[in-house]
Amino acid sequence: MGIVLSTLFAFLIVSPISTVGIATAIFMEGVASGTADLGAVATGFTLLIIGWKANGFATSILHVLGSPKVQMANVFSRPITLLPILSSAAILGGIDGAVGISGTPISAGFGISGLIGPLAALNYEGWGWSAGNVIIVALVFVAAPIALGFLFTFVYSTLLGRVKPEHYKLDFE
Questions:
Q1: HSE-CB for 38 with a 13 A CA cutoff
Q2: Which of 25, 30, 91, 155 has the largest count of CB atoms under 10 Å?
Q3: Residue 113 confidence class, pLDDT cut points 50, 70, 90
């Protein structure tokens, strides 16, 4: 179920639909909320990495610190650009199913923006701020999404040639 929820929220975060609004409306809590967060995290980091060459650092970091929704036009004009994002989200959702990162209805879908997802996970009942939990959250919210972003950028861009950094180019003019 983690794989399904994570990929669903990865898609929703680049669509016009509010991930936080949906999660709050259905009162998504616990591991489901954590998985929704990780779908947004996977999307942000994958977009940062795959679009780096076309957008540069300042614009690419926007996907993680701001919102991946800025890619909405690119994704809808070229749906194949979803492949690396959804692949990364699926793996991260599976990892969450094993680890059990949790969150609240309001934190679901925010991802790492404002550190809302990681803080909600650490403050969730049964977790807490132990050194082990902080390391797990850092690995799941930062290290794993970065590694998966590089992996699927390599697979879909270099190996298969299905997507190019130019597909993720943002033009704010």
A1: 39
A2: 91
A3: confident
